[in-house]
Each structure stands twice: as structure tokens, then as C-alpha cells.
Fold Palmitoyltransferase.
Amino acid sequence: MGSPAHRCRDIERQAGYLQPEHCAPPPPRTLPDTMWFIRDGCGIACSIITWLLVFYAEFVVVFVMLLPSKSLAYSLVNGALFNGLAFLALASHFRAMCTDPGAVPKGNATKEFIESLQLKPGQVVYKCPKCCSIKPDRAHHCSVCKRCIRKMDHHCPWVNNCVGENNQKYFVLFTMYIALISLHALIMVAFHFMFCFEEDWTKCSTFSPPATVILLILLCFEGLLFLIFTSVMFGTQVHSICTDETGIEQLKKEERRWAKKTKWMNMKVVFGHPFSIAWLSPFAAPDHGKADPYQYVV
């Protein structure tokens, strides 16, 4: 009887039984600087909604709470902080959405490629029957992306992409910055309500009192919902990174067949070597340094 991990694999056979003749020649390789984008209607809609919700929060924070404020210092400090975090959140979202998560070359299960691996007797490779690729260990097929993704954690419709080996850093930063701006917005709403109750409602906003209340209440619901959701996602992702076990591997209870590393080393594998302020930047691609590559042959 095979182990649970083996039963979860698509196909586990020796090279002679992979039937490479059933695979069409692989498509031309795209250039390294080609932007990655998934044409999924649901994912595109969710991504647009995410940006619109952030812009709504920007509108309420700036035009309803900060500009009417009598304290210039309060408006400048909170405006710079909120807009800076919102910019980093949207930049992280864009990088998570438009970065190749670690897609395995499609249709590479050809006779020539298998022969190039120079397999020894007893060595095993994995073939995905859906995208006809020879995939590395810890890779899984995504039915939305229609590709096998290295170290795939899950497919997130809110970023219209898989969360995998190459873009997990950006997804973690996206959840962290969204949680921070949600918390910041909730704190500012609380202070603004206190100010409006003490002062005349007509002086605490350029909008009418009913419109001001409705806008603030909607921002409260949005901030609270996003804070809970992204905080849970952020904690789940950090735990997954520290334990070096993806969401799919946890769900399938796959047997660990890779080297165990320290939590700090696992963090550096995702965010880059060595530790620096670049960990918090969505514009800095992680330098994996001496991180072990995921081989095709096990």
C-alpha cells in the first residue's frame, strides 16, 4: 500500500511509463520579463472590487475626516501614514497578481526532456496528466491557472492568482498592509465620532450629517471585515511559512519528504537572504540565496 502522500499525487511512475508520446511539444517559452496574468472572470472581478474598496476608504478618510479637521498636524500625519500604507497594499496586490507564482513549464513531459533528466534505475518522476508536465516535488496543479505551481499554497481570487513559491512574499505583505490600514481607519473613525459628538455635526464634515454618518458606518463595516479577514490570512500564511508546509500539504496531510529547516531560515526562503528592510517592500524581489531548489527527480 502506498503512503497518503503517494495517493495524493497525480501519477507516480518510472520514466518508461510516463507515455511522453501523448504530450504535444511544449509551447514557446515566454520572455522572463513577460507579465503574468490569469484571465479568470471571477478573479478579475474580485481584484477590481478590492481596489475599489481601498479607494472608497481613501475617499472617506481624506475628504470626510482629514480635510475638515481643524488640526493641520493631525491631518498631515494621519494622511501620510494612511496613504503610504494604502499605496504599499495596492503595490503588494499588483505584484502578487502579476508575478508568476512558480509555474512549471507546460507540456514538458516529452521524450527529449525525460531523457535529459538522465534517470537512474529506481528514480521516480511525477507527471501531471492535466497540463502534461513533469513537475517538481511539492508542486500541485491549479484548475484555475491550468498549470502546476511550485510550492502552491492556494489559489486566491482576491489577487486573481495562485499563492506559490515566487509570489508568497507579496501576498503576505498585501494581507499585512490591508490589516494595518483597516485598523488605522477604524481608529480614525472612532476619534471622528467623538469629535462630532462634542462639536456641531455641521462643522465636523463638509458633507451633511446624515451623509457623514452613513459614510463612516460603511467604512466601519469595511474596516472591521477586512481587518478580521486579512489578519487571519496573515497569521495563517506566517504559520505556513514557519512550519514550511503549504495549505494544500496541510489539507492533504502529505508526508514530509523535504529537509526540515529552522523557522528563521523558512522566513528567509520566502522573503529573501539576508534580513533587511527590503522584506517590507513589494518592489524588492526576494533573493533566495542558498535556498534549496525543488528538483524534478526524487
Q: What stands out?
A: DSSP finds eight helices and seven strands in the chain. Residues 59 and 65 are 9 Å apart (CA to CA).
